[in-house]
Specification:
The protein has eight helices and six strands, in the order αααβαβαβββαβαα. By secondary structure, it is an alpha/beta fold. The chain starts with 10 loop residues before the first helix and ends in a 32-residue tail after the last helix. Belongs to the N-acetylmuramoyl-L-alanine amidase 2 family.
């Protein structure tokens, strides 16, 4: 079973082998010469450098086969109870404790960071919501205030005089401006009017300028036309002032003639409104018709006109082409139009005691 390859006797090798077998505490079935030496030899001291000195190397190789319970090298056997003590380096233990604490601290730090992020995001969200609510409230308040102001402005009466702010034109609505006498340049040669209008006014009389008058389309040209009409009334017809209470231009603006307080030159109990142009030849514009309707609605709202006022054309009260066929066709569709002064109809104003001469007072 055992084979020794070296034929030379090596005292270090023999000593090592004797020590190994002695430590086993038993004898193996080796070669005869080895068995004899092991049997007769007593335990001897093994050189301490036999395994550590590289100059000393075993000179034999042991081949084992079909063997069990074989130990090569030192083996210590203990008979009785054994207590094992483990000693750990304090530095290593401290590092382990620090590592464990680091994991706990890291977890705690991560939890704190998550809470901080959640708190920060919540604060930002709450701040954003508050800003949105405040902004919406401000916008709503401004809009409500503006609408209340607009309603209050619209509820106030429009005064046709120099009592509006910053010399701006009063507005009837939808862009229909009121051009007062000072704005269109009324003549100072007009004589004082003496016949007041009784309120509320029961009749509205619609006329036009006629005589091939071209409709004016802006404030400058219409102001010139108003002054021309006034000068003609004073100089040629010997009237104290311009004839009608109001004049409406092609762009829908209203020019003040005698105004709300004084009777016109046609009839005492009427509000005379004149279309500025010859409407036997020209068509009234939509803005012009609308301007007249806005003026009438304003007059009713401010109790200048009777709620059930009657609207008549100039040619219904006396022989005339005024207000022109084109204007007559339009106003005859309006709800307050009153059919009078024609065949089989009553005389206009007869219920007020007015006669045909009342419609041509020339005041």
């Amino acid at each position: 079973m055992y084979e020794q390859n070296s034929t030379e006797s090596n005292p270090f090798t023999n000593a090592a082998e004797a020590a190994l077998w002695t430590l086993q505490g038993r004898q193996g079935s080796g070669p005869a010469n080895s068995s004899a030496r092991l049997a007769n030899a007593s335990p001897a001291a093994i050189p301490q450098n036999i395994f550590t000195n590289p100059a000393i190397q075993p000179s034999s190789v042991i081949n084992l086969s079909n063997s069990t319970d074989v130990v090569i090298g030192p083996m210590t056997q203990y008979q009785g109870p054994v207590t094992i003590y483990q000693y750990m380096d304090a530095t290593v233990e401290a590092r382990s404790v620090q590592a464990g604490a680091g994991i706990t601290s890291s977890r705690s730090s991560n939890t704190t960071n998550v809470k901080q992020r959640l708190t920060r995001n919540s604060l930002l969200l709450i701040t954003l919501i508050v800003l949105v609510v405040v902004t919406a409230s401000v916008i709503l308040y401004v809009e409500l205030s503006r609408h209340r102001g607009a309603r209050a402005e619209g509820d106030r009466p429009i005064y046709f005089g120099n009592n509006y702010d910053h010399d701006t034109f009063p507005n009837l609505g939808n862009g229909h401006l009121i051009i007062d006498r000072d704005q269109w340049g009324a003549s100072e040669r007009a004589r004082p009017l003496t016949v007041p209008l009784r309120k509320p006014i029961p009749y509205v009389l619609i006329t036009h300028i006629g005589v091939q008058s071209i409709p004016c389309v802006n404030v400058y040209k219409c102001s010139i036309k108003m002054r021309t009409i006034q000068d003609s009334a004073i100089a040629e017809k010997n009237l104290p002032d311009i004839q009608s209470n109001f004049y409406v231009s092609d762009e829908g603006n209203v020019y003040v003639g005698r105004g709300w307080d004084w009777a016109n030159t046609y009839a005492n109990d009427t509000l005379a409104i004149t279309f500025m142009g010859d409407y036997g030849r020209y068509e009234p514009s939509k803005k012009q018709l609308e301007g007249v309707q806005f003026l009438l609605a304003h007059a009713v709202a401010n109790k200048q006109l009777d709620v059930g006022y009657k609207l008549v054309a100039h040619n219904q009260t006396r022989p005339s082409k005024s207000p022109g066929a084109n204007v007559y066709r339009e106003i005859s569709k309006w709800p307050h139009f009153y059919l009078c002064g024609t065949e089989n109809t009553p005389k206009c104003g007869i219920e007020l005691g007015m006669s045909p001469s009342s419609w041509d007072s020339k005041m």
